[in-house]
Amino acid sequence: MDKQRRKQIVIAGGGITGLSTAYYVEQLCRAHAIEAEIVLVEKSDRFGGHVHTGKKDGFVIERGPDSFLARKTSIIELMQELGIGDDIVGTRPGISHSYIAYRNQLHPIPDGFMLGVPTKWKPFLTTKLISVRGKVRAAADLVLPRKSNVEDESLGQLLRRRLGDEVLEQIAEPLLAGIYAGNADALSVQATFPMLQETEQKHRSLIVGMLGVRKSRAPKQTTQSSQTTSKTTNKSTSKTGSGNGSGSTSTVKKSMFLSARGGLEEVVTHLEKSLSSSINMMKNTEISGVTHEGERYVVHLHNGTKLHADAMVIATPAHVAARLLPDESISKLLQTIPYASVMNVVLAYREQDVGISLEASGFVVPRKEGRTVTACTWTSSKWAHTAPEGHILLRAYVGKYGQENDDQLSDEKLVHHVRRELEEMMGISAEPIFTEVNRLPDAMPQYKVGHLERMQDLDDALATVMPGVYLGGGGYRGIGVPDCISQGKAMANKLLTRLIDMA
Ligand SMILES: Cc1cc2nc3c(=O)[nH]c(=O)nc-3n(C[C@H](O)[C@H](O)[C@H](O)COP(=O)(O)OP(=O)(O)OC[C@H]3O[C@@H](n4cnc5c(N)ncnc54)[C@H](O)[C@@H]3O)c2cc1C
Q1: Strand 339-350 to 434-445 pairing
Q2: Chain segment 356-393, per-residue pLDDT in tens
Q3: What is the phi-psi region of residue 370: left when phi exceeds 0, alpha when psi lies from -120 to 50, beta otherwise?
Q4: Residue 133 sits in a domain of what CATH number?
Q5: Residue ranges lining ligand 1, Cβ < 6 Å
Q6: Does the pLDDT of residue 2 top 70, yes or no?
Q7: Mean pLDDT of the chain
Q8: C-alpha to C-alpha distance for 185 and 156, rounded to whole angstroms
Q9: How far does residue 296's CA lie from ligand 1's centre (Å)?
Q10: What residue owns the CA closest to ligand 1's atom 7?
Q11: Share of the chain above pLDDT 70, in %
């Protein structure tokens, strides 16, 4: 091989994972004085993938993710490096609760729920969401023995075993599995909420273990929590602040979820700007396959041209990667990651037309309610930057794994169903100023039981069959935007190591 030749890196997929990989590998190559030609190939006409913000009449509309967990700092560090650290905003102060829909009514999530586990007796005993029998069953967690092995199991299996069906179905599943648009009985607990399994192993009782966690966090944080993302829960504990909730340092510091003042796509546009002079960024370019060429790879494009790669990252969804890679065993492993198709309906109102107070971050809907809407974020209550003064912005979510029939509905019918359900559950009958339907086919990866083991098998198979090819993104090791950025950083390091080894 020609050791003097400029090394070539191809990154497939220009979502947040592909962009972050490009950003970090470009920095690493510069720092190590490695001459490399980096190409980022994106199928669509824009970068960012699911990170997609729209702006209309003063509203900031997130079509995919709307926020990130403050404790996952990779995105904060990235935004600071990109010079947009000051644009990080926290949730509006005082919006500290959310609801669960039950029989046409919204009930507050009982205070003290953490990862679906009750840690405060009074709110739990008085909630109408769980029957007396269900409450007694949940208390059995205090005496039940711990599971004897630490094999992976489903989130549903673990919570049903410890707390009973009702707590799972009425509270935990919509809050936790809802993040993945998933089914709790199929999602791997180790890949989604490993803390639950760790708590059982350490404390036997989830209630006792979570109570300890809550006390150790007090007084900063008090109630139910989520692992990666949250459609509706909002744990800003600030009772003071700037008034509008966004931007003030104290609010940002106290907020459990954060976002960007101009919408999350701000991160994408700044990444794009910082990369455009140093790497080759190709939009409207679809990759159709990857083949071997000695120690290198040939990347085939739909337009008939080819790129060559000494090392490459595939940051497309797993089902696309399965089609691109030539090895059957790798493709089969990739096909074990199913994706749910989801939609969301954005509704904008004049406050005066709605006539009810929306002092919460929204609500989730248990599967048993049999509704089209799976959750609704009261976006403008949660995020001050998303609506002009005197206006309200809501986002209703539709579709989850195994419940995707509504994607056959026309936009008109979908909006009709969503408005009818919002009227039944929230009492809003006003005519919206505008609505927007966002369809996201095959968008939410499902980490099924055994996911982490399969990821290890995938890494091992790639290292043997296609050394120098790395896979990353929401489908693999963390669905949240900060997880994708961390994966991008980790893959950039692997790309660098590969280039150094080849030199
Ligand atoms: C509705 C929704 C809400 C969410 N909410 C949150 C949230 O609030 N907070 C949070 O942290 N996370 C959230 N997530 C998760 C998070 O947004 C995603 O996990 C993350 O954006 C995935 O990024 P990615 O780069 O891995 O993949 P993607 O965004 O899917 O990007 C992959 C890219 O690959 C491109 N591509 C596909 N095929 C090819 C090909 N053949 N050739 C070239 N390019 C190709 C695609 O066009 C796309 O741009 C949400 C996700 C969804 C769908």
Answers
A1: antiparallel
A2: 889 999 999 999 999 999 999 999 999 999 999 999 99
A3: left
A4: 1.10.3110.10
A5: 12-18, 41-44, 49-51, 64-68, 229, 286-287, 315-317, 320, 342, 440, 443-444, 473-474, 479-481, 484
A6: no
A7: 92
A8: 4
A9: 27
A10: 65
A11: 93
